[in-house]
Amino acid sequence: MIIIRLIGESFRFAADALRQNKLRTMLSLLGITIGIFAIIFVFSAADTFRAKLQASIDKLGSKTIFIQKWPWGGFGDYPWWKYVNRPEPSLRDYEALKERMEHAVGVSYEVSASGRTVKYRSNSVEGAELRAASHDFNKTWTVDFQEGRYFTENESKSGSPVVILGAEIADGLFNGEPAIGKRIVVMGRKLTVVGVFKKEGEDMLGMSQDKNMLITLNFAKGLFDVENGRYGPTITVRGMEHIALEEIESEIRGAMRAIHKIKPGSEDDFALNKSTIASDQLDKMFTVVNIAGWVIGGFSILVGGFGIANIMFVSVKERTNIIGIQKSLGAKNYFILLQFLFEAVALCLLGGLLGLLLVYIGTLILGAVGFDMVLYMSNIMLGIGVSFLIGTISGFWPAYSASRLDPVEAIRS
Question: Average pLDDT, whole number, for the chain?
């Protein structure tokens, strides 16, 4: 109880000192406010951006592996010359892999042709992406429908002229009317709509189904060369949930090397891409962003910390006489130390809270113009923690010097 009472008295002394010097208090905490605002604003923007990117990456699935010609990456020293002569994944690879895989939920062959125009009577939608896939597409990707259904096995095998539309395309063509059963024109061919994907909204990596069309692979063979590299042929494998991703990857690598007759010791002529590769790239990119945030705000906080220390030394000088009286009346050294230390911490916390308030106002302004930024609780706690730490460091030496004053000499000052 004595300790609590002493802490309470120290806080009251600190609060009185801050109230009596309002202008000096505001100027002192300005550096801390700007520093905390800079750091937390950068971190909040980066975290929001990262969360959106990660949500896009998560759509790939944690147990999904993509067999492609090019490995994901493309940053830094990307040895593209090693991959340019690799073969594209072929239908033969797909058929052979499908027979060999034991730990796969589904294996699909996919191609896409971008920038297509879709027509229905007098309505048209431009810039749509036409995707074609084998029947297991609904097993390798998570697909939800707001209307209709997926292809039947017979439709996939026979290459029926059926199509599943993205929500945006359906809205643009049919103006809210039911889409099922209607016939649209794509690349000069008529297709019957059997389903509409559930609306997903904007996607940072462009993987939303909203502006995609999906047709059967066998029907696509009559429209274009599905093994041509310009259409990005990909074999997608989704492994069983209870099997480790490394085991699934190892099985695919062994099967593909056998299919391509690659000799032991020779390099793969295919890439196995997975969501963890993209996540690792995100980690590297946002590590740099976070460092930049610390550098941007760090200088301001450093200047603010020196400002707080300077003001605290001035405050000790002004109140030397009072300190002498307090010590002559029995105040202990730690009471004097806590009194000034709490004052410094209170200054920094106040500056930090103002900085966080500015960040919150910034998120509201950005939200009003269409960019949703989130001020996460972790960033709020970080801002408060940094403020507390700077206050403790900046205030300790002035507080310590005040606590060591001789009461007689202090009163005489």
Answer: 83
CB 323 within 8 A of CB 410: yes
Residue 26 CA: distances (Å) to CA of 22, 32, 306, 349: 6, 10, 15, 12
**Rounded-to-integer distance, Cα 206 and Cα 212, Å:** 10
The count of C-alpha atoms lying within 13 angstroms of the C-alpha of 324, restricted to the half-sphere facing its C-beta, is 13
User: How many domains in the chain?
Assistant: 2
**Beta bridge pairs of residue 214:** 131, 164
Helices (H), 244-332: 245-259, 275-318, 320-328
Q: Which domain-ending residue is among 218, 240, 269?
A: 269
* Percent of the chain whose predicted confidence (pLDDT) is above 70: 89
CB-CB contact of 193 with 161 (8 Å): no
**The model's pTM:** 0.65
Does any domain span residue 275? no
Helix (H) or strand (E) holding 114: strand 104-120
- What is residue 112's predicted lDDT score, i.e. its pLDDT? 92
Task: For the chain, report the end-to-end CA distance as a whole number of angstroms.
Answer: 34
Q: Residue 213 has what pLDDT?
A: 93
